[in-house]
Automatic annotation (TrEMBL):
A GO biological process held by the record: inositol catabolic process
Top-level taxonomic group: Bacteria
Domain Xylose isomerase-like TIM barrel: 37-293
Keyword Manganese: yes
Gene3D superfamilies: Divalent-metal-dependent TIM barrel enzymes
Ubl conjugation found in the keyword field: no
Name of the protein: Myo-inosose-2 dehydratase
Enzyme Commission code(s) on record: 4.2.1.44
Pfam families noted in UniProt: AP_endonuc_2
SUPFAM superfamilies found in the cross-reference section: Xylose isomerase-like
The organism of origin for this protein: Sphaerochaeta halotolerans
């Protein structure tokens, strides 16, 4: 297939972390997007430092040959009225559509512990009740319909510290939602950190994958996170995640499968690290070189 059907983006989380403001708090928006372009990427996701005025943001990105491909959206379908979630979702999609994005990545945060620094991400991981599953899957299908009406595609981001983290939970979410309305945001780092088989999920749910996050996992730090009962954010600060090719994941079969089976869309390098320990430009350039060497893209 033509490699032009796959586009490469990088998330700002390697420069400045929305959940941990102390990581990269001093790095300005302009430096972040300039270094993305310098490293050879053509797309970006959205961070908290990005201007919300679409005219201002478009100008800054156009100068650097970048475009927005997605922005995280927190759903609270298990803890808020559906109408409240939908209102915020429509506003979010309106912004993304104006920026030229075609997908919106969502993750349920109603019972999430990913932001709790006092809880072990493994020991305290939430498990959805039957009622919560019903609220989540029915709500996602309705939001997916809204997204479709707006010319967008909803993709669900399985995530550490949430009720949709394991292979079984991903399987259930896919089984109980409409394939035409709810896609999957496939994230290698979250799968491997959780202990899942990324190739198994890739093959089983390939037809649902609308967006891809590429990040690696440092095996010794993952083992330490389990042993010492780290929170998710403690793991981020200590360096559990890194760029593709710098950790324990064998990316060659993953990227080859995506290419050979006709995946179309964005591959997003999304390796949240402490920029004081992992220079963002250096690691972005390493990631870009690794993808080129591994796939020819």
């Amino acid at each position: 297939m033509s490699t032009q059907k796959i586009h490469l983006a990088i998330a700002p989380i390697g420069w400045t972390n929305d959940d941990l403001p102390e990581l990269g708090g001093e790095i300005p928006f302009e430096q972040c997007i300039s270094e993305m372009a310098l490293a050879g990427f053509t797309g970006s996701e959205v961070g908290n430092k990005y201007p919300r005025d679409t005219t201002v943001l478009k100008k800054a990105l156009d100068l650097r040959g970048l475009q927005i491909c997605n922005a995280w959206f927190s759903t609270f379908l298990t803890t808020q009225r559906y109408e409240e979630v939908e209102k915020a979702f429509v506003e979010h999609c309106t912004f993304l559509k104006e920026m030229g994005a075609q997908v919106v990545g969502v993750a349920e945060q109603g019972n999430s512990i990913q932001g709790r620094q006092d809880l072990s991400v493994f020991d305290a991981k939430p498990v959805n009740s039957e009622q919560e599953w019903k609220l989540l899957t029915e709500g996602l299908t309705k939001l997916g319909q809204k997204a479709k009406e707006m010319g967008m595609a909803l993709t669900y981001h399985h995530h550490m510290g949430t009720g949709v983290q394991t292979s079984e939970e991903i399987d259930r979410l896919m089984r109980e939602t409409d394939p035409a309305l709810v896609g999957l945001l496939y994230d290698t780092g979250h799968l491997v950190f959780s202990g899942e088989d990324p190739m198994d999920i890739l093959k089983r749910h390939f037809s649902r994958i609308r967006h891809v996050h590429l990040k690696d996992v440092r095996k010794p730090l993952r083992e330490k996170a389990i042993k010492e009962k780290w929170s998710f954010l403690k793991g981020v600060k200590e360096g559990v995640f890194t760029i593709p090719g710098d950790g324990m994941i064998d990316f060659k079969p993953i990227l080859t499968y995506l290419k050979e089976h006709g995946y179309q869309g964005w591959w997003v390098v999304e390796a949240e690290q402490d920029p004081a320990k992992a220079n963002p430009l250096e690691y972005a350039m390493k990631a870009r070189a690794y993808i080129r060497e591994t796939t020819g893209i």
